TrEMBL record:
Bias type Low complexity, positions: 47-70
Coiled-coil segments on the chain, per record: none
Keyword set, alphabetical order: Hydrolase, Metal-binding, Nuclease, Nucleus
Main localisation: nucleus
Names of required cofactors: a divalent metal cation
Region spans: Disordered: 47-73
Protein name: DDE Tnp4 domain-containing protein
Organism of origin: Hibiscus sabdariffa
Top-level taxon in the UniProt lineage: Eukaryota
Domain DDE Tnp4: 211-367
PANTHER family named among the record's database cross-references: OS05G0593000 PROTEIN, PTHR22930
Transport is among the record's keywords: no
Subcellular location: Nucleus
Homology family: Belongs to the HARBI1 family.
Length: 422
């Protein structure tokens, strides 16, 4: 038995020794092939260099030898033919507007306003990306919502460069343009807004129409439950997460106040209570005026909402009809916002912490387009699907209830209510 075992062991050792020698021979053969390939490649490169040197003039040779110590940077050659075509002076304005949602004149205005903040200097290694191209990358990304790899192909830039440009330009828009184009109106503007809203509805002292929409996001890594959107999940039969954008607009659909970034599980009432507008109203800023909201908001001293109880009277029906005209202004403005900037319609690659900056930039660009009468293509119009949640406390002020009843009574008995409620 013992001799048999020794024989088997010796046979196995010989087998593994032969196997090891076999693999060693293979490795040596591969090593020789690689060495031979490198030698051939080096000889070809040397021959090409000699040939190039022989074909050059003595002046060129001297110039190269003097600059041989400079650093060389490899940059991938990408085509930016599409952007060069759009940037031509004779490029059709309607085609430009289709791509960027605004006319050339508005685009150039934005570039001029941002120039001092986003312009970069050329370096010895590469030329800086021009301001127009920087702004165009950002606006085209916001307008189309296309992924960064497609933005990269359109503008002939790297994907990471495009991502960086979008955030840089959005940040510049928010810091430079927002104070100028998105702010609470002064007294003269408020007086005009009151008159215009009263002309629309017959309801006096209205300074704005308020609405809250949801922006879809990818499931966050933290606080997932806070961003879970139950209403959209039930409607679409697909798990949905979102953040909110609350906005107040004037009669033109221009935002005068925004509150961005609260989690999608929060109701309209909860978002309102977290907003700076709510804090300013508590400080007396909105005393004696109304901001009109939907039934998702509570009735307050400064927030006017429709009647929601069953079995409404004719007076209450008439009031709801007229307040609906004001509500429609905000809802249509948000429809144009999402229609112009398609990035708001789908889940985005932007990180959650960067989204408020991007959304703020979209609101500012919306205002610029509205102020400059930039119409929107009918094909881009977007139907909103935001559901109103009944507030926990629908009535927060007895005096506001009496004021609403008085407005409803005046509308009906002064012949301002129309007949749609009959």
């Amino acid at each position: 038995m013992e001799s048999n075992h020794k024989r088997k062991t010796r046979t196995m050792l010989e087998f593994y020794t032969n196997l090891q020698d076999y693999y060693s021979e293979i490795d040596e053969t591969d090593r020789r092939k690689r060495k031979k390939s490198r030698a051939m490649a080096a000889s070809v490169a040397a021959a090409a260099a000699v040939s190039q040197t022989e074909n050059q003039s003595p002046n060129q040779q001297n110039k190269q030898s003097g600059s041989s110590q400079q650093r060389r940077l490899w940059v991938k050659d990408r085509s930016k033919a599409w952007w060069d075509e759009c940037n031509r002076p004779d490029y059709p304005d309607d085609e430009f507007k289709k791509a960027f949602r605004m006319s050339k004149s508005t685009f150039e205005l934005i570039c001029e306003e941002l120039n001092s903040v986003i312009a970069k200097e050329d370096t010895t290694l590469r030329n800086a990306i021009p301001v127009k191209q920087r702004v165009a990358v950002c606006i085209w990304r916001l307008a189309t919502g296309e992924p960064l790899r497609l933005v990269s192909k359109r503008f002939g830039l790297g994907i990471s460069t495009c991502h960086k440009l979008v955030l840089e330009v959005c940040s510049a828009i928010r810091s430079v343009l927002m104070p100028k184009y998105l702010h609470w109106p002064d007294e003269d503007s408020l007086r005009e807004t009151k008159e215009e809203f009263e002309g629309i509805s017959g309801i006096p002292n209205v300074v704005g129409s308020m609405y809250t929409t949801h922006i879809p996001i990818i499931a966050p890594k933290i606080s997932v439950a806070a961003y879970f959107n139950k209403r959209q999940t039930e409607r679409n039969q697909k798990t949905s997460y979102s953040i909110t954008v609350q906005g107040v607009v004037d009669t033109r659909g221009v935002f005068t106040d925004v509150c961005i970034g609260w989690p999608g599980s929060m109701s309209d009432e909860q978002v309102l209570e977290k907003s700076a507008l709510y804090q300013r109203a508590n400080g007396g800023l909105l005393k004696g005026v109304w901001v009109v909201g939907s039934s998702g908001y509570p009735l307050m001293d400064w927030v006017l909402v429709p009647y929601t109880q069953q079995h409404l009277t004719w007076t209450q029906h008439a009031f709801n009809e007229k307040i609906g005209e004001i509500q429609k202004v905000a809802k249509e403005a948000f429809g144009r916002l999402k229609g112009r900037w398609c990035c708001l319609q789908r889940r985005t690659e932007v990180k959650l912490q960067d989204l408020p900056v991007v959304l703020g930039a979209c609101c500012v660009l919306h205002n610029i387009c509205e102020m400059r009468d930039e119409g929107i293509d009918p094909d881009l119009k977007f139907e909103l699907e935001d559901d109103d949640m009944v507030p926990e406390v629908a009535l927060k002020s007895v005096s506001s209830m009496k004021a609403r009843d008085a407005i409803a009574h005046n509308l009906l008995h002064h012949g301002l209510a129309g007949t749609a409620f009959l």
